[in-house]
Automatic annotation (TrEMBL), chains A, B, C, D:
Keyword Transferase: yes
Binding-site positions, Mg(2+): S301, D363, D364
Cofactor annotation remark: Binds 1 Mg(2+) ion per subunit.
Annotated Glutamine amidotransferase type-2 domain residues: 19-237
Protein source organism: Novosphingobium lindaniclasticum LE124
Enzyme class: transferase
Enzyme Commission no: 2.4.2.14
Protein name per the record: Amidophosphoribosyltransferase
Pathways per UniProt: Purine metabolism; IMP biosynthesis via de novo pathway; N(1)-(5-phospho-D-ribosyl)glycinamide from 5-phospho-alpha-D-ribose 1-diphosphate: step 1/2
InterPro entries xrefs: GATase_2_dom, Ntn_hydrolases_N, PRTase-like, PRTase_dom, PurF, PurF_N
Similarity annotation: In the C-terminal section; belongs to the purine/pyrimidine phosphoribosyltransferase family.
Amino acid sequence: MNMTHPFRDADGDKLREECGVFGVIGSKDAANIAAAGLHSLQHRGQEAVGITSFSGEEFHSHRGLGHVAQVFSQRELDTLPGTMASGHVRYATTGGSGLRNVQPLFADLAAGGFSIAHNGNISNAMTLKRDLVSKGSIFQSTSDTEVIIHLVATSRYPTLLDRFVDALRMVEGAYSLICMTAEGMIACRDPLGIRPLVMGRIGDATVFASETVAFDVIGAEFIRSIEPGELVQVDHKGTISSHRPFGNPAPRPCIFEHVYFSRPDSVMDGRSVYGVRKQIGMELAKEAPAPADVVIPVPDSGVPAAIGYAQQSGIPFELGIIRSHYVGRTFIQPGDAARHADVKRKHNANRAIVEGKRIILIDDSIVRGTTSLKIVEMMRDAGAAEVHMRIASPPTEHSCFYGVDTPERSKLLAANMDIQAMADFIKADSLAFVSIDGLYRAVGEDKRNKKRPQFCDACFSGEYPTKLTDFAERFSGERNAA
Amino acid sequence: MNMTHPFRDADGDKLREECGVFGVIGSKDAANIAAAGLHSLQHRGQEAVGITSFSGEEFHSHRGLGHVAQVFSQRELDTLPGTMASGHVRYATTGGSGLRNVQPLFADLAAGGFSIAHNGNISNAMTLKRDLVSKGSIFQSTSDTEVIIHLVATSRYPTLLDRFVDALRMVEGAYSLICMTAEGMIACRDPLGIRPLVMGRIGDATVFASETVAFDVIGAEFIRSIEPGELVQVDHKGTISSHRPFGNPAPRPCIFEHVYFSRPDSVMDGRSVYGVRKQIGMELAKEAPAPADVVIPVPDSGVPAAIGYAQQSGIPFELGIIRSHYVGRTFIQPGDAARHADVKRKHNANRAIVEGKRIILIDDSIVRGTTSLKIVEMMRDAGAAEVHMRIASPPTEHSCFYGVDTPERSKLLAANMDIQAMADFIKADSLAFVSIDGLYRAVGEDKRNKKRPQFCDACFSGEYPTKLTDFAERFSGERNAA
Amino acid sequence: MNMTHPFRDADGDKLREECGVFGVIGSKDAANIAAAGLHSLQHRGQEAVGITSFSGEEFHSHRGLGHVAQVFSQRELDTLPGTMASGHVRYATTGGSGLRNVQPLFADLAAGGFSIAHNGNISNAMTLKRDLVSKGSIFQSTSDTEVIIHLVATSRYPTLLDRFVDALRMVEGAYSLICMTAEGMIACRDPLGIRPLVMGRIGDATVFASETVAFDVIGAEFIRSIEPGELVQVDHKGTISSHRPFGNPAPRPCIFEHVYFSRPDSVMDGRSVYGVRKQIGMELAKEAPAPADVVIPVPDSGVPAAIGYAQQSGIPFELGIIRSHYVGRTFIQPGDAARHADVKRKHNANRAIVEGKRIILIDDSIVRGTTSLKIVEMMRDAGAAEVHMRIASPPTEHSCFYGVDTPERSKLLAANMDIQAMADFIKADSLAFVSIDGLYRAVGEDKRNKKRPQFCDACFSGEYPTKLTDFAERFSGERNAA
Amino acid sequence: MNMTHPFRDADGDKLREECGVFGVIGSKDAANIAAAGLHSLQHRGQEAVGITSFSGEEFHSHRGLGHVAQVFSQRELDTLPGTMASGHVRYATTGGSGLRNVQPLFADLAAGGFSIAHNGNISNAMTLKRDLVSKGSIFQSTSDTEVIIHLVATSRYPTLLDRFVDALRMVEGAYSLICMTAEGMIACRDPLGIRPLVMGRIGDATVFASETVAFDVIGAEFIRSIEPGELVQVDHKGTISSHRPFGNPAPRPCIFEHVYFSRPDSVMDGRSVYGVRKQIGMELAKEAPAPADVVIPVPDSGVPAAIGYAQQSGIPFELGIIRSHYVGRTFIQPGDAARHADVKRKHNANRAIVEGKRIILIDDSIVRGTTSLKIVEMMRDAGAAEVHMRIASPPTEHSCFYGVDTPERSKLLAANMDIQAMADFIKADSLAFVSIDGLYRAVGEDKRNKKRPQFCDACFSGEYPTKLTDFAERFSGERNAA
């Protein structure tokens, strides 16, 4: 059993990506540390990876499509000398020209080399790009991140740091960034801190990562989270300085990192991700009990909540679905005879546990609903007497524009149906979601008390905490902060 | 078959492999069904895969190093036409010339084309090969399986079936075979039935596989196990005939299939593998209780026994170790600072669960002991107060010569130490193994009552059920049936 | 265009390349015609090739390292739809990031897509680039050609054609360009016409190429040369318009195209290249006779001049050196015993012709002298009684800054030695070069009569016909037009 | 100009191959020397190459599809240690399983490792194979060479040398072989010496090769030809012994090696190949003069005969056809508009020489006639006034069964038409072939005086010097020695 691999379908029209970023400055093993750190962040993006290093005189880069362990062997890492390196894992890059979009991006500016790795999404990138191109900027990628580079290149401020802050003041949306210049490393988080970013230490070196698990794996010590709106600079002597160019807006970190996106062994803003998920399962058991014989997780992402549900309800936890490790991307149907062969390649019913039983199925979320339907049917084919689906998040009714890859709203099941209709669609005997209040309880906060820390929960509530300039027409009907 | 490259493999002494076999006859989707079936058997061998098909006139073959999904896309499968196909997944093939050993093996005999896929190991292969070579046979692989082909080729019997039986009478050891000739498919299992083999049906087609999970995945119906010593022939009209060329010796199926090797969602000789493993955990809880706060499995193979242990003992089951899916084969150390980085790439402590707790760790077996040591140390680094290791099999004191890849005896921790010394070696506060009697109880049998069904448990007991001609000197001190 | 990898090439100071360009507009087979045309121009650049097509809505591109036939099969060509295509072959691109420099370059400008393929070299590229970068332009390649794109992007003129002319007015040096916009194709040649460019017709389509041989191979009709300083536009209806934005300076086409660079079956500005080379050999026979038994060409480039020398002198032409076609780039020495094995892999003495003979060796030029030395030694090892080297061009004393790849001046043998010293260096019994007057006679012109057409002969004379802004310090001692 | 690349069309149904073999024993650089030697024999086979070495204990092998320089870099050569190595270049290997047929072939026999590289063709291979398979031998390739290995493996003689001679006594046809055993190297030539084989020395090492050019390139000294029917053994101490197991039949070496197949800088049985070809051109000028302005070779193979023809006739030799070096295998038609684009990719008319002229075209042979037709049409398209084709060999009326790749008889133009009909087919104004007597005169022998040395000239005369067991039915109408 195995929890780190997000449950993703193969689909094409991804515009927004989940990503992971990592940086290290001050170690002779910089590129190797970056590769190991990115490897532990692989669940945040499996399609492409890149590392850029700085050897004191020159920047070096290697990028490729695939997993960290496919793109990087010691041979490639040996082409990345120096004591500073940063890297990026990325979800979706399709097409022959995809390599152009693989980060870190790099440019030789008049002020020197500038490298950038970005987790998040800039919600006015298209608008900014149109303006830049009209003045002569030439874009090479289709990535929103590239606008930051051109804003830096064309800024009138004298120093590279000033130009960078000048550029950030023009962008809106979510960004956790790790940048490199000849002088050192800059890590910063958008004013609301939508995407995570943490700082640690290994020996004399400073490290930054999207999640704490990266520090565990490389043997680094966790120091603290980068604050929302904070910009941290580290030079080659190890001097660290903190800046707050955006004042002190109230933070709104992404709650979906707790529900699904982060690794369960990470600690996010002081909370154990595994612990939160188990607690969500407990809240769910209280809010939505069901008479059943066994609690069965949809592996792997449903497992912690299922353990919590089982402990709270007293119903035994059992592996009623077995997941295969060996799922290839371009696999083939065995022919007409096999029903739901694609889902069976990944998940197979453990008939000995399922047959004749009333089961509670626990999953993290429902997006389009097609996978849930297949899983429920697989349970029935294996002889389940009743199937009660329980979901460890509120209904996903809204798209994310801050870097979590969700389909457009019209394809979200919860945007189109009420809960009973959803239950019918997935053919479950009953269906329930944890409430948004229950979710806040599980993380130890209170959605209704705005004096307490709040999250970005736009995917559940539609309350977007920033302007969405590029999407203004499409989403004029939705509530947002503008 | 290929005679031009019989140079020794880099790892020439790796003669024993774990493998999976699959066959289908009577379907227009034969190659696709074989690929899907092999995909579900991937856990039995991840290093190489091959499929051979028969299109009515010719045999076609594609083999490669890697996973099923890496070696086969629809493009390769389209080169394998016909209504009959068989395939093989294999554990270890290293070196540039490794492809020679990838099965199915094939030869053009005077009686026509002959293809063979083999799970198991022939324990007099070297002896037979010496004799064949002295008479002019030219071997192309270093696989033990190739002796069967040469025995068939040089047999004096008239029909291909008679030649095949003549060949099998000369070999000793473990073999589940799926062969193809122009006339149809032959599936057979050695006289003791050491390795598994099952038969099913999908539409009008007959299928054979190492495990029932392959039938689930392709949507086939399980019919029955092939009996130990049984040879089943299926022709292109679908006529099935059963032969018993070896009489009716008492079966001795491998008990390690239940402990570790098979998928938990398979049913092996009528027993749910998941159910047996959970029961082993329950026996272990009775035999070797420990005062603790949590039961933590070493994922993934320790999970079912841990669930059983937790249910029996009442101690909560928790995911104290998180496993990454993204472990590449040639990965790199992040540098000197990181302790046990290699094991951390695969397993990471979930500190929130472990810290300050007395934990019971459940794993399936201990081979060399080095991994157990690293896991225990990882638990202590994460703050575990006490670590009690519990193993869901008896001590592995003896090598397997029947197709499970185990190191030579001198490298087996249990062959060299008593249990207290082992506990000290892995730095656990306590260590216990399930007893062999407890293991038999978990599968519902009785080791001491020889009238009841017995297993091959040589890896635990040293009681080898066949001659070991090739290994006679090395193992003269061990008990075997000869 | 690609901004993310502008790290320096391993051979960053290789700024000058020989290249070939080709364009076609108005044919449904545009990409295939481009590939065939580039194939015939392969001698102008063997290291990299690219083709860009326009399908009415989008630009498509495929570029790679290697020969045309290695980079393009029908599969790649099928990804390049449309009735307009242009391509480029290029001499030297080394290192992993080399692909960035492979042309055609492309950018999405505010005014639309813009593609450019360039033969020649811009001698103020570095100076222009510094200025552009200071204003915020981000370069992705190390190619001089990219400055043209940025000049177009940042020009204040309204139309793309005006912007393009505006850009060209800022550049100095040699350029034959084939550009594409959504409106059609633009072919133009620098004011002095240093590099060649010809126009032809195949069916209803218009074609452009560096040499006429490309028209022979695709079955096109030669129309005329593009004039020095002329800019020809062709739209999708086939309308052709000619512009002269630079006035009418006196042309100075490169004479080295006749000596070495063009294919012998091309016709360059009305002169057969083969005929000119044969005539150079005749002039050489008159200027530098030698008492000898045979005339032997250094294959392949010395053959036409050797035929001319033999016909003029009456001494028999014989193949005393045999050239192998199969020279790989990374080949291996057979060991210490073999002398000059590298040159022998390419050239081998035909001992039966050489032994005991007084030979006249004809080669096209001497650059560093090391190859000439090896060839002479090879002749002596094969038993030559006397070796008289005759060179079908004047001594190469100066570097080219206009797109022919020559080493820096300090490595040119003729820049460092007089002719007798050169003869001693290459161990020839005698050495002679054709005079620059003889060379002009061979092409039918007169170097001393400036009213007659003149050439760029800077590599022989040091008389550079343009400013050399980027190289001003290095070459302040040399004569140039500035 | 460039003579070593045979003029070959791309066609599929090749059953017989031209090949080159090379061996070296006694040098620490054995594999490197073999690679360099094979590189110089590349014209004898361009599709596949292999090298096997012996390191004192083990045989090592690397084989691949492609040219020597594509298959072998220093990295591959470093995997081939030892002081003895042999290799093979091969013409045609098609299909995915082609690698099986790439030589040297190797087998582990009871008497030890045995490697074989073969130039020629065994004309009773099919018959022998049927018998071997019926007794249990398993073939892995479709190569005729493999029968020799099985004959050695199943021979009843005690020593490996005796078994080898026993095997050779059973085979008929043409073979020059280089074999390796743990004891040393064996080189031998069939009783009639149909294919060439020469011996040389480099330092203390002994070398064998198909042609002397291989010795030039590696810096070795030519010692002598292996005699027809001779078997030479060299052990690791350098001791050389010669055996004549077949008595002393009258030799019949292949005359086509002189006409076309060998490199012009090789010396074959004491005769300069270039000199013979030039002499054939002179004989042709005497036998078949034509009133013309220029003599034009079809490059490269027609060049020496064209030089001879020009010198004898006094008509000027000119390069009226230019050949491209860059012909790829899978190239693409530029579209319907281009006539004969495939031949133009390789050969292009030099219009300046051809236009308005009466030309004599010299080629080495006519096989199917389709290429000759295209060349003649290309000359006419370029404005030739008259085209007189002269061929430097007699009409090719019969297939070769001894290792030269010729199509079956029905596809040979000369087997189906008289000379006037052939001239009409290729659209030449006149056509003439050198007579077989003229050909013998050119090599200094006399076809009509059987006391003088004779050649295998079966492709011209139909007089096959051996039995053709496998082809008995097909060729019962042709004269042969049986």
